[in-house]
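Reopening this ticket.

The earlier resolution said the output was attached, but the attachment link was broken on my side. Pasting everything inline this time so it's all in one place.
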Amino acid sequence: MAAAGYKTIYGPGTAELIVSRSRFIAQARPVSDEAAALRFIGEIKKQRWDATHNVWAYALDPSAGRCGDDGEPRGTAGFPILEVMRKEGVQAAAIVITRYFGGVKLGAGGLARTYARAAKLALETAGIVERRPFLTCYAETEYALAEKFRRELARQEFPITGTLYQDAVMFTVAVPPDRLESFDQAVAELTAGRGKIRRGPEVYLAIDQDKMLLPGGDDHE
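Inline output:
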């Protein structure tokens, strides 16, 4: 995945279509690797064991993607799903589309269009976002400065992703790699040089229209 960020889906998404009496249920899910994609596909096949077809595709990065037609005519099902993911630029995601046959054949073109449409709807309901790299930083301050610390970091657009209250207050902060120096300076000024900073791992956080999306709905502009 590119260091500058990549497009993926924010969460699970489901869409449903009825076309010529056939029922198509499209489910999309973020996946971290091939093993996770295969587990997801297996889960849906087990859950929808009575379906006529469980067609699937997943893309891990721009050059790594696989798909399966699960009994549909070759090239009419899995490949159209994968093509939608590629056109949208989405990676680290998998889609399974379940079909319950309604007795009317759609033809190769009709099948391809329907699977592509269902895949696009599933991606839209999952929410297409960009994930950008941030460095996790742990900043410690005394209780008396905690609220001032919180307000100032928010003003300077350093998102706090976690808070731990012990002998002191430990903030977990997501810092863009090119703003590390500014972050260190902000902490030093806020704490008169007494604040402690520790670096953590690099993480990819979801961005939608320049708004950071954090688990639990605690989003940051």
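Reporter confirms the inline version is readable. The radius of gyration is 22 Å. Residues 107-126 form the longest helix (20 residues).
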